[in-house]
Design a protein that fits this description.
Length: about 300
Amino acid sequence: MKKEILTFYREFSMYTNPGCYEKLLKKDLPNDIKEIGVLVRKNIIHRTTLAAGNVGTNADKKFGDMKKVPWYRQPEDDVLVTASAMLSELYRRDKRGLVNNRKEQDKLVVTCRFVSILMAAILKSKGIPCRVRSGNAPYFDMGKLGKVSTDHWINQYWDFKEKKWVTIDVDGSWSLNKSFNPYDIPNGEFDFPADAWLAIRSKKINSDYFYNASGKRGAIVVFWSLFYDFHCLMNDEIIYLHGPKNGWGNREKFVTLSETELKKIDELAKLMQKPDDNFAKLQSIWQNNPDFRLLSGCLL
């Protein structure tokens, strides 16, 4: 792996920057990747778990007793968008910070993007190259939806001993319906959007297999993940409400994209299939192509 690529993924983004907590993360937290992941997971409640209560994957209350969470607590994705914001709130609610026995009422209520950002902030603080990745996960029980691959965010960290990227899923680690190790996800278990997009375009897979928590299915779901994933690869882990300024992420616009526009997405996807080999080309797109960088959403 080129040194400049590993250096790039050691750097903090505006989202993964832990701010004044960097030294605490480096010094006070364990160094073992799984131990870090378990610790992070014990401080988080997913919004769907809070909404469902003590049923399903939380029937054993491994995520905590949802009855102990105040009735007025709502998902906090909209306000805790950065690692520094999440860490600040964790320390505000419990001065010990990230701890194994945090009370349910003091946990953060956030989703997979936020868990991945917090994990990346910790590993980067320890000098470990890490990147957030967006895509779709087929390894959750989605109930009445049947067999689908749902939108999900995970991490990859660089293993210096093995000299490879290791894919991990901290947020979903306690909810798998398959028996692989969530701290070393085998190739093919997670649907990276570049592969999924090109498979849809070549008609090798039914686009309705891909699902987004908004209730949408189809190629647009994969395009959203592709856009997020490109930004993640560029150390810019944008929020769910951000989409391309050119409107390609809007359903009405998406269904009218020309073949020329679709081929632009195809070319980006082909590069993203091997992001390290094509790192310079991806950075060139980042620096020069407004279609894949400029954002709309919220106040933008």
